[in-house]
Amino acid sequence: MQGRKCSVMRRNQLMPLAVTFILLGAVAGAVIYTNNVVKSSEGRVDFEAELVTEEGSRMFRISELRGKITILEFTYIGCSGCEYLHRTGYMQQLYSKYKDKIEIVSIFLYYPYDSLDYIRRYREEFKINWKYMAVYRSGDLIMELKLPALFTHLFLDEDGFERFRKVGNINYVKEMFPYVIELMLEEDYETLKRLSDPIEG
């Protein structure tokens, strides 16, 4: 247990530095990782990542989910807010309630000192019942989607257009996400725009 705590602390300490180097590399024009990120000027989002399953992993495009509202949850090893929502079962309950109408996809951003095995164990430990995907060294993804923080939720409509985003906030997720989902289902995009963090094209 002590070793695991030390490992988590080390990852927490290294994460901001790793993100800084990745962003600097992207700004400098370095090719960090090619996952075919697409965000059109109208706000349509698509990219490729590894879909983590019990059997292993396979490449998967977000556009394969078109036809349903999709919540993208960006997360990383050591994200305490993500772990709280998963450990308490809140996200599992939310997905179970709306799974006929929405998809939830956790996008796990991982780095050289992590592994897909760890991500797979995390998925099993917290009984994740939605799609769990992994992106390795994701500087281009962070830059193209203009993610202000690694713990961020993006809501896409049935055609893949971003309609709402919110930097990770446990209380907001618990209190407001059911309402946000209902607004998405009603296609009340004006209200969503007022509630959303800024969406940059």
TrEMBL record:
Residues annotated as domain Thioredoxin: 40-186
Source domain of life: Archaea
Record-linked Gene3D superfamilies: Glutaredoxin (3.40.30.10)
The protein's name in its UniProt record: TlpA family protein disulfide reductase
SUPFAM superfamilies (UniProt xref): Thioredoxin-like
Organism: Caldiarchaeum subterraneum
